[in-house]
Each structure stands twice: as C-alpha cells, then as structure tokens.
C-alpha cells in the first residue's frame, strides 16, 4: 500500500520514514516536504521524495498522486495551520487517499489556556472527521526532547522557575510517536480511532527538578511563581512579551490538569513500553550541560 508522509524532512517525519522503511518496501513510501534536498539519503534507499507546500495548495495534487494512505504531520504555523491542514486533507481526498492519520494534541478543547496551540488541532480534527475518508487521530503528549533545552537553562542557573504548581505533565518521546504512527499505518483496526499517545507517567515539577539534578549531577532548585510574576520575570530577562505569555499559559495549563494524561495506547499499539523522560534526559545529558 502506498503511504504518504507529510513534513517528512522534520524531526518526526524522518523518524516515521525510518520506521516505515523497516516495515514495508521503500517503493511504497512517498515522502512529501518543502525541502526535498534534505531527504536525498532516503531517495537513495528507494523512497519517493516529492515537493509539496501546504501554503501552495497547487503543489499538493502531484505530491499526493497515487497515495492510498497518508500521515498528516501537523505544522508549527500557529494561526495558519488550520487552512494548511484543510488544504492537505482536501488534496488527499481529491487524489484518492483512503485513510488519513493526523498528529494532534492532548485535550485540544475550546478555552484551553494555550489557545490556538491546542484549539487549532481540535479544528483540524473536526475537518478530518467530516471528510469521506477513514481517519485516525494521534493526540500526542508533549515531546520529551523539548524538555532538554529549558532543562539545560535550569541546570546552568541551578533553579527551575515555574507557575505550574502541583500539576503534572505527561511526556512522550518522538521515537515512540514515530513507532506508534508507523504501526498504525501498517496494521489493521485503527480506522475512526482517537488515541492519546503518552508515556507511562506524568511528572510534577518537583519530580522534574529531581530528574534534572540526578542526570546532570548538579543541584537544581524549584522556584514556584504566579502567572504574572513569571511573565514579568521572563520579559525582564529578555523574552519577547508574546513568548513570556505563552510560557505562562503553558504552566497554567499544566497546573489546571490539561496535560495530566497517561494512556496505555502506545504500549497497546506497538507492544513496547514507552521511553521515560529520565531515559530521554540521560540520552541528552551532554545537551543538559550545554550552558554550564
């Protein structure tokens, strides 16, 4: 079965492509990207690489031609991506794609504290469910790898500033998400299913500083702040105001339980236990010490 992967030159897209190359013939894999030159190594392995740009919908019919199923990896273009995703879904339907798998977000509900970062995924889900193709939605937890850079800053300064209170944050590694996506694309029984893709734990900020201290070998202290004080402190230290507000909104969402999700779906789908945040931090220990 011919499988399309969009955003194939990104972090997640490349990992999914690698997983699919281990499970199915390369001749059945179509990798769509704005940067085909970045995937020359996968072309050499037999995959088809095509240019496609969601902001240029006229490029998508040729990019999706002949595809039977598609992994639609959500874009990072907050404010534009609902239109981008809709253009991709419509082009896939027109090209004869029969099944679309979409990478979404935990709890993409109205009034989510992070706003369109979450709600645009919910809008895309609604668009996908309204089409005539079968669909699967993967609501991914926060990528564990994204904790490395802020963790490095906390390690360097010896303090982790947060407004998350006692809230817990569920993580998942990109490798586990790629494994789940590839399994969904190569096994039966996933049509019209919505999965929360998480690891087996949700971590408090107190537990996070303990992990950072353990893995880095340097003491990290937890500093709890209110929303306004955190926003003020971030802007005072050079963060643009929209960035500071977004970080505070993320902390509020953790505090209010939007990310406290632990689900067995990843294990049930792949037959493997997900990677822990601790394991991801250990794998990136050198990066945690970048600023020390």
Automatic annotation (TrEMBL):
Residues 7-187 form the NAD(P)-binding domain. Coiled coil: none annotated. This is NAD(P)H dehydrogenase (Quinone). It comes from Solirubrobacter pauli.
């Amino acid at each position: 079965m011919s499988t399309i992967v969009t955003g194939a030159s990104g972090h997640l897209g490349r990992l999914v492509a690698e997983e699919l190359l281990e499970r199915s013939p390369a001749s059945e894999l179509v990798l769509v990207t704005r940067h085909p030159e970045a995937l020359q190594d996968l072309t050499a392995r037999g995959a088809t690489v095509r240019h496609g740009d969601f902001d240029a919908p006229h490029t998508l019919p040729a990019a999706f031609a002949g595809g039977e199923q598609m992994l639609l990896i959500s874009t990072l273009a907050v404010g534009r991506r609902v239109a981008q995703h809709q253009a991709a879904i419509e082009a896939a339907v027109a090209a004869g794609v029969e099944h679309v798998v979409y990478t979404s977000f935990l709890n993409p509900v109205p009034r989510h504290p992070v706003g369109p970062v979450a709600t645009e995924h919910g809008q895309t889900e609604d668009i996908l469910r309204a089409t005539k193709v079968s669909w699967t939605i993967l609501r991914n937890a926060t990528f564990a790898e994204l904790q490395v850079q802020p963790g490095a800053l906390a390690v360097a300064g010896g303090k982790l500033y947060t407004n998350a209170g006692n809230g817990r944050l569920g993580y998942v590694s990109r490798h586990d998400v790629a494994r789940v996506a590839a399994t969904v694309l190569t096994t039966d029984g996933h049509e019209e299913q919505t999965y929360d893709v998480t690891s087996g734990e949700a971590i408090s900020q107190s537990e996070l500083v303990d992990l950072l201290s353990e893995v880095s070998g340097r003491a990290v202290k937890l500093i709890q702040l209110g929303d306004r004080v955190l926003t003020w402190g971030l802007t005072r230290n050079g963060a643009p105001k929209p960035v500071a507000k977004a970080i505070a909104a993320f902390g509020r969402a953790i505090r209010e339980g939007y990310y406290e999700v632990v689900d067995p779906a990843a294990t049930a789908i792949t037959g493997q236990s997900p990677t822990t945040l601790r394991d991801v931090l250990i794998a990136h220990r050198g990066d945690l010490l970048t600023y020390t």
